[in-house]
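About this split. The held-out portion is used to measure sequence recovery: a designer receives only the structure tokens and must propose an amino acid at every position. Recovery is the fraction of positions where the proposal matches the reference. Here is one held-out target exactly as it appears in the evaluation file.
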């Protein structure tokens, strides 16, 4: 406990020093400004934007670079949150930000820190040649989609649901869900388990994943209203209702949330093999774990 209090005290003092230290204020200036796909909507506290409705982005510090290479911080999402707090200080509580803004912000931070060129190694699907390609972050950011999406969806039963996109915290939970699914598949393939143990493992993991999925959808549903009901915003009531509806209705709600959560950044690009000349479309994986290597 004493260690935790000491760490908290050190963090608070560091934040105060950032606000009052004239050296830090004079040294750290925004490197660029970016347009957010959400336009600043869906945040718990709307970020401070420029007169052109753009977000200021600062280059990474040496401390930021160390954090992006810490395995525990990468796994639990703390690296991403810490990075955004440092490089986009006008975003309060980045863990509550809409996940659709994340890739745009990461590309902005990378450009502010390393320049506009992003070098990628891409294997040709035809001849397996390892190609070295280069993307332009400026071009990627200039194509950011900012078109607003309708937040509500109406079920065939005339229930109207208003949704928000997934948050950064939700994204971390989704990653945990994927890891659990992977471990379950590995466990089911293990020769050390008999059929009864496999069945028990499958049942336990399946229930955990199902519960987590319902929690994520509940987090993103703002309100539900039927023709004969009041507007319901209570999360417990919404969760119970979600557990009672049909799969087609559930899929409609989840589809709306996923549509709202889509990245405003185009991550697919045309590639051409430098060896055999084959042309294809490929994507770039933008994540803190493999994106900030300079």
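Reference sequence for scoring:
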């Amino acid at each position: 406990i004493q260690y935790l209090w000491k760490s908290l005290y050190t963090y608070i003092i560091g934040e105060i020093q950032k606000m009052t230290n004239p050296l830090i204020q004079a040294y750290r200036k925004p490197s660029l400004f970016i347009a957010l796909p959400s336009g600043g909507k869906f945040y718990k506290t709307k970020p401070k934007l420029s007169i052109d409705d753009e977000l200021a982005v600062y280059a990474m510090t040496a401390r930021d670079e160390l954090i992006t290479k810490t395995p525990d911080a990468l796994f639990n999402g703390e690296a991403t949150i810490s990075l955004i707090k440092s490089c986009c200080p006008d975003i309060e509580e980045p863990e509550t930000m809409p996940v659709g803004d994340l890739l745009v912000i990461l590309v902005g931070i990378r450009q502010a820190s390393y320049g506009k060129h992003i070098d990628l190694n891409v294997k040709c699907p035809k001849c397996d040649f390892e190609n070295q390609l280069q993307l332009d972050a400026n071009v990627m950011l200039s194509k950011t989609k900012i078109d607003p999406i309708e937040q509500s969806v109406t079920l065939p039963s005339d229930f109207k649901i208003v949704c928000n996109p997934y948050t950064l915290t939700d994204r971390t939970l989704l990653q945990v869900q994927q890891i659990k699914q992977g471990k379950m598949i590995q466990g089911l393939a293990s020769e050390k388990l008999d059929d009864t143990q496999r069945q028990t493992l499958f049942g336990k993991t399946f229930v955990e994943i199902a519960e987590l999925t319902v929690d994520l959808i509940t987090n993103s549903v703002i309100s539900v209203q039927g023709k004969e009901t009041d507007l319901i915003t209570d999360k417990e009531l919404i969760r119970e209702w979600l557990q009672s509806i049909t799969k087609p209705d559930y899929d409609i709600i989840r589809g709306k949330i996923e549509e709202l959560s889509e990245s405003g950044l185009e991550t697919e690009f045309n590639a051409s093999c430098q060896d055999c000349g084959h042309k294809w479309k490929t994507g770039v994986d933008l994540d803190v774990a493999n994106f900030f290597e300079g």
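Annotator remark: The chain has twelve helices and nine strands.
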